[in-house]
Amino acid sequence: MKNKILVTGGAGYIGTHTCIALHEAGYEIVVYDNLSNSSREAINRVSTLIGQPIEFIEGDIRDAESLKQVFLSHHFFGVIHFAGLKAVGESVAKPLMYYNNNVSGTITLLEIMAKFNVKNLVFSSSATVYGDPESLPIDENSPRSCTNPYGQSKLTVEHILEDLAVSDDSWNLIPLRYFNPVGAHPSGQIGEDPNDIPNNLMPYISQVAVGKLAKLNIFGNDYQTIDGTGVRDFIHVTDLAQGHVAALNYLERQVAPVGFLPINLGTGKGTSVLELVTAFSKVSGQPIPYQFADRRAGDIASCYASADKAKNLLEWQAKLSITEMCQDSWRWQSMNPNGYTVT
Ligand code: NAD
Ligand code: UFG
Hints:
The chain has 343 residues and is α/β, with parallel strands linked by helices. The protein has eleven helices and 14 strands.
């Protein structure tokens, strides 16, 4: 048995897929989640997929006493920290809630880690920290700036991690900057389960294909891109999950602390909104009615990663294609039209 890992937010979309990848790689896992944007059913399904119960603790990262109990009961090699709120629009309406959850929560977690001398952290950052990029592909040294409280909360945590690494050189702090995670586990048992009408493109397309939503609004067709629609670096969530395993394996290999080490997780390829719609329609055999609408406030034209640092340091690269991303999203959506809610 390999090292034990605390997975905060492990009941969520990326967390569940990562728990499976960690288990397959031989890590022992403990999931800590307040279920504010997830469900026990997701945990049950992960348990079924891995063939054994998951150790799950319902708790909030802002609750220092509860976290302390978890650290007293387990000896962790490190923490993968997914827990946080992620809806950009909601963050504009409720900035204090976002800073409280994402920033204060992370500070509480870091304080407990310091107390128990657990100094390995893999943090869910985002390509959103690059703002409107000056050049493409985006590498890790690109300037960072954010225009909404969600993005600002991620950037603030990155600054905190940088300061922490300067203050004490025994920390290993890896913010993984995700590009656009999509897709689902190939079993069709776990996937993204938005509470409400989806904000993000792939779940929206899936719900149009399954007949829950009438048509897709494509936000802008006058960008300077291949077909005028936005371009993003879509990455399969199981590839992303493997990126976390690779980050932990990397930390296990190190003989000296790495300090603050940001790494992009993307494919390095851009795909336009229209290209994704066409690919999804082909894979699912369903029409995806759409109409062009105004640009969405705060959106950028194009965003895709330089994936070289992950390849060189972590020996990881994304493998799955846009077709596989659409196939797996469609399998999840069509097998679970109401997500984890059993009706
Ligand atoms: P998700 O909402 O599915 O998962 C987050 C999990 O954290 C949920 O299970 C939620 O219940 C839990 N959580 C939230 N606040 C908590 C708290 N205070 N204490 C304990 N648990 C808490 O989101 P996801 O898509 O899996 O994203 C995981 C992480 O990756 C988030 O930090 C998100 O900001 C980041 N991220 C996501 C994307 C994306 O497009 N999905 C892109 C870049 C970064
Ligand atoms: N889009 C539409 N119609 C929709 C939804 C999206 O046309 O109904 C377009 C957007 O305008 C954009 C593209 O599809 O051009 C992708 O939009 P998403 O909302 O799926 O993703 P974003 O790139 O805007 O943002 C996502 C996450 C952020 C994260 C960012 C970078 O939502 O949290 O990726 O990682 F910060």
